[in-house]
Amino acid sequence: MKVTVFGIGYVGLVQAAVLAEVGHDVVCVDVDENKVARLQDGEIPIYEPGLTPLVQSNYQSGRLKFTTDASEGVSHGDLIFIAVGTPPDEDGSADLKYVLAVAETIASNMQKYKIVINKSTVPVGTADKVREKIATVLQTKNKNIDFDVVSNPEFLKEGAAVNDCMRPDRIIIGTHSAKAETKLRELYAPFNRNHDKVIVMDIRSAELTKYAANCMLATKISFMNEIANLAERFGADVENVRRGIGSDPRIGYQFIYPGCGYGGSCFPKDVQALIRSANSVGYQAKILESVEAVNYTQKEKLFEYIMGHFDHDVKGKTVALWGLAFKPNTDDMREASSRVLMEKLWEAGARVQAYDPEAMEETQRIYADQPNLKLMGTKEAALAEADCLVICTEWQAFRAPDFELIKNKLKQPLVFDGRNLYEPSRMKEYGLQYYAIGRGL
Ligand code: UGA
């Protein structure tokens, strides 16, 4: 099938590559000339396991193309995805200007029936706005062309994006058009094997499903962080509580890991956006407000532990930091807990020696002018002459380190762990003073 994807970000690029891989003929359009040129040279702008060979092989086979030419994109695709960003505007609402600009471009260049598919995470009612925009532009151009707008939210996770897209848990299709439903079922047929993963519903419910999923997951995390904070005060161990409640299948083991807060480009933005959307229809989303508030304070947790330990004076101290990305297997630093920690440490006069397996370049780009940040080539090098070690991201490479080496390299045998990677009793045996989240401090 002929497919066009507007917006070559995480979602757009992965979706396009995966569709090309199963045989569809895909054109990707982006306004960023530099990004398009890099992709045409085989350079992938993001770190995502498995993505580079997928993009390169499909580009070489001609099933995946990149262009800045919107009219070429519109004339190519019978199905046109909108996968551009919806950044938060000043009050946290999702800003739809890019989505609506693409809708306008599609309408301006459209010559025959098209199915326009919203892939971006967009507030409930956006498909209606996209439909209105296209209809208005067609009307002013005196063009009488039929089209459908579909909501088809994406549920991929960074770091596992290719796999998530290849093997989706569900394929949500929000549409009122039988014709569009048939076409989308055909498009996704290669991913819909074994059992039917397609769930068809009305457009507004599909739009809300996306927010509800992310907000539910964020709620699980903030809830568990709250329990961790209680465990700490009661002298209990949240890791035992986690295992205890996760064994109930109604609760489940996933997304109940306490830590130094959730980050990334989705949870913080989507929780905020749903709070704002709720306000706009006269409803106060109290649970979500609390989810956000708990996460905000949780991101300051490691800094509080450090300040408490050093009697509220870290001036001149050097902190070794393992993990910069907002989670493992990505180089994404958006809303990362490490940023809150580093910025607070710098403000308090401390220096940071950091290591991350993938996010060093991105960190360098963000903090290019920060004199109190040193990026180190290995996790061991980051320890040299530091006053303590702090862990912000649970990369596999941090799970079984050489504890003797940590003790010998640090000036003090002191570890602050924002992801609960180690057993407190083992740390004690190694002679390391260990602060973790909610583990009966
Ligand atoms: C999230 C959702 O998981 C995807 O399903 C969704 O499609 C995506 O947002 C999106 O809207 O595009 P992602 O932002 O890539 O995916 O990251 P997650 O793996 O969900 O992790 C988010 C944050 O929660 C990370 O900072 C992670 O460290 C934290 N987390 C996760 C915890 O603190 N505890 C947990 O138990 C799980």
From TrEMBL:
| EC number from the UniProt entry | 1.1.1.22
Q: In which pathway does it act?
A: Nucleotide-sugar biosynthesis; UDP-alpha-D-glucuronate biosynthesis; UDP-alpha-D-glucuronate from UDP-alpha-D-glucose: step 1/1
Report the residue ranges that make up the UDP-glucose/GDP-mannose dehydrogenase C-terminal domain in this protein: 320-424
Q: Which SUPFAM superfamilies match?
A: 6-phosphogluconate dehydrogenase C-terminal domain-like, NAD(P)-binding Rossmann-fold domains, UDP-glucose/GDP-mannose dehydrogenase C-terminal domain
Which NCBIfam families is this protein grouped with?
NDP-sugDHase
What sort of enzyme, by top EC class, is this?
oxidoreductase
Q: Which reaction does it catalyse?
A: UDP-alpha-D-glucose + 2 NAD(+) + H2O = UDP-alpha-D-glucuronate + 2 NADH + 3 H(+)
Family affiliation = Belongs to the UDP-glucose/GDP-mannose dehydrogenase family.
Would I find Cytoplasm among this entry's keywords?
no
Protein name as catalogued: UDP-glucose 6-dehydrogenase
Q: Which UniProt keywords apply?
A: NAD, Oxidoreductase
